[in-house]
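Re: duplicated header lines in exported structure tokens

Our pipeline writes sequence and tokens for each protein into one text file. With two proteins the header for the second block appears twice in some exports. Here is an export where it did not happen, for reference. First protein block:
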Amino acid sequence: MITDAIRDEKVLKFKVDYNDVRPQFKALEAEQDAKKLSAAENRQALLHPDRIREITQYILNNFRQKTHRLQAGGKGFNAMLAVSSVEAAKWYYESFKTVQKDREKPLKVATIFSFAANEEQDAVGDIIDESFDVSAMNSSAKEFLAAAIADYNALFKTSFRLDSDGFQNYYRDLAKQMKAGEVDLLIVVGMFLTGFDAPTLNTLFVDKNLRYHGLIQAYSRTNRIYDATKTFGNIITFRNLEQATIDAITLFGDKNTKNVVLEKSFREYMEGFTDVVTGEARRGFVDVVKELEQRFPDPAAIEKESDKKAFVKLFGEFLRVENVLQNFDEFASLKALQNVDMDDPAALEAFKAKYYVTDEELPALQAVQIPSERKTQDYRSTYNDVRDWLRREKSASEKAESSIDWDDVVFEVDLLKSQEINLDYILELIFENNKKIKDKVALVEDVRRVIRASLGNRAKETLLVDFINQTDLDQLGDKTSLIEAFFTFAQGEQRREADALIADENLNVEAARRYISVSLKREFASDNGTELNALLPKMSPLNPQYLSKKQSVFQKIAAFVEKFKGVGGQV
């Protein structure tokens, strides 16, 4: 029973959005009568090119938000799109190819179906199983699926064919790539909507009528537990399944089952709520932000240990509620509004059109105060600083003398990683900002802010700043040239600093180079085994200074690896 599994925290709740922003199709999207939906004119209306294109564009516009890929380079999650028929799958697949044709980084889209893939369901809403037998498909469906498999083969360097064994092998490989997060969006009719479990899948877009058992089965593809960033299964329906969802949920319990199975609303997360099931009171985003800005207007000025702890707990609360809210379209529009010039009528109209905001709704959005991106980066930087201080810099004697107990503090590392930016993104930012700013001091300040807010690239701050200061960026005509120039610079600095470290510490040259190279390859230094001992200068292990020397060398190499991991080259 899904209610028991959710209460026992074995699976997650569902957050269901009923997306009905296409007024000309609204009545048909709300239709529940199977006979009316199967009528030829209604089937064609639901497959109208304008409707398919609008939904395709919505998915592309919101995909990064829904799958937690807001930061460039973030792994995030992947998604499925459940459609009503093979014909619908074909229309959507072709629409994604067309709309993404000129995109620099298009989503990796795949599809799968077989014979008997259609809208019909039995009395309890079971999704009809699809067979691996492709011989019964008509020629049009076969031709389309063969072309889609060919696209997949080109993408993943495979060679699957549309015969019985080839199709089964394609199914298995597709399942593997979905679980690995390598396919961004999978378009399905019935296959994969039952029995397929992938914790990396968090979003289901739905353009088909579901009910009862089949609805719960399909929704349940999204609610497998992963980590702190995945708080619920994300469901976005392009048909009005609100009553069908309530009916399916109440089939498994009573009127209160809805509170167990479905997530709270945007308004509740913004303003706060008391959980009906647990009785726990939860503060809203508005109150958390208000306290954060009142107590810590300048996070860089935090010095007292008690303030550090209070800040970490409060900003952790901010990260948790923001992680939930980023799944809501309303929050995306709220954040986007911060960057709109309200004195520019064209920019304002473009914003309202993109986020489906009316003139009546705009004042309410304007009234909500959220931290700017720059302020959030400053908060994140201080949060990382305190974490580093607690882990590395606070001495054992300080910990012993401190009256502050940190045992009840949990650093939200998973949430920080979900917002992580990669090195290529930082380098592209340097290129773009240099074109705008033309001032290295201001450029360095902006880049420092971004790097310090990054969990994985903080150690590269001096490397990146030195690159900016020592390079004529105006001579680099495109992003690729700047990226290549950085890696050349970084590899030179890596060799120079490695030579200096080996010489300064009087290390065994060959053993040290070998140990550092292995550490760079695996992206961390380890003091397990004998490799570290082998590179140390000759000294008896009984020498009182041996252990302190070993620890000192290890810490310096670990810092070196943090700084240069990912830049390539030889030491």
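Second protein block, exported in the same file:
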Amino acid sequence: MAGLAPFDLDKKFTLSQVPHPAWKPQDTQGRPEHAVQKVALDPQEIGPGNSYKLLIGGVVPRPIAFVSTRSKTGLLNLAPFSFFNVVCNDPPTVAISIAMAGGQQKDTATNILDSGEFVVNIISEWFAEAANYTSIDAPPGQSEFELSGLTPIDSLQVKAPRVKESAYQMECKLVHQLPIVNKQGKTTFLHIIGEICMFHIDDDVVDTNNYHVSLEKLKPLSRLGGISYGRTTEGYEIPRPRWEEENEKFA
């Protein structure tokens, strides 16, 4: 890490102009550098390891589900997953894909299947290192809360704990689970779909008059390729076109 610029903890989220303010409907857009050829890559030929590299390097940035669970014996578990996203808003639903570890289910998957409950906590910049530390290959029975120094707090509707340090937490109940099986018949992932039964959001992060979430206050992390993380500090706004207003341009 020597030689890298220090992390600016005080950097604010800002809006800029759109990338191409002069663009009009039907104008062509493409890579500005030079003409290139596509490389066609068959997942069956390059194998799952290389497919993984392509996915985590190209499907970016990815949100991170920081999942807290409770085992049948009461042990608390905490782990980050970037194969994660929102499914829908009615009912509010999220999905997480959890890889098998050495042919066995990870503690997170086992706990979710046993209890039918979990919490997704959003990771923010102020506890980035502690959150990353929970990805350690700890033995079964070792709580990542204890290792990372993060704080478990009670939830309202599920027995799984929340992460106190997280400014945005979602209590979830399992509604679907789908084993992902490769062409050799081996289960490689467990796809978890959970319905959100309670949100917990810091009061300076959400405006409950319009339910706007402040990126500047939340400071969420995202996953990139390799061991890289991203941050969201700049954006731009583009209104969604409406055919009623746009159709005359194509007459």
